[in-house]
């Protein structure tokens, strides 16, 4: 792949970027560039792709018989947050790209750049939590183990 300075994020088709390459892109981009990019109109396109991949990256053997609805609130400045829900049950992870009105067992709120860092393996949930970049409501034990339920790429 081209050097990061040569990548036009606005035109990049994230659907064709392999998870390991995505992790490398997130790792190597300056925080400000990620923030600017995720504050733009392409944020939803990137979030849709990340959440779409969650069901494929899900490790049912790690989740066991767990049944949990997780609501993700991804913020970007003063705009309303993007809301997604992942439901882990019956050995599968299903994703809904909206607030279904159901009661989640866990709600995670973070800015879009931190979310990308978390799902690409470039940040840890506990570190984001303790630095107040991740807000957790509900089952904190579930939050602590959530990354073990997914095959998170390493750059």
UniProtKB/TrEMBL annotation:
Residues 67-144 form the SCP2 domain. It comes from the Bacteria. InterPro entries: SCP2_sterol-bd_dom, SCP2_sterol-bd_dom_sf. Gene3D superfamilies: SCP2 sterol-binding domain. This is SCP-2 sterol transfer family protein. It comes from Actinacidiphila alni.
